[in-house]
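Researcher: Go.
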Amino acid sequence: MKTRDAYIEKMAAELNEWSAQIDLLAAKAKNVKADAKLQYAQELEELRVKQREASEKMKELEEAGDEAWEDVKMTADKVWKDIKTGITTASAKFK
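Model: Structure:
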C-alpha cells in the first residue's frame, strides 16, 4: 500500500507543478504579438484539457480498488506522459 500512496503523492505533486507551469505560460502568452496570441491560446487550451484529464485520472487512482489499480495506473502513466510532453513543447515555443 505504501507504493500506491507514494505513487499518488508523486502524481499529485507533478500535477500541482504543471498547473503552475501552465499559469506561467499563460502569463507569457499575454505579452506576445496578436498573431502569436491565437496560437498560444490554442496550445494553452490543449494543455488545460490535458490537465483536466490528469485531474480526473488522479481521482480514479485514489478511488481504484486493488483489482483495478494496475489498469488505472497504466492509463494514468499515459496521461502524465502526454501532459509532460505538451508542457515541454509549449515551454520551448513560448521562450
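Model: The two ends are 41 Å apart (CA to CA).
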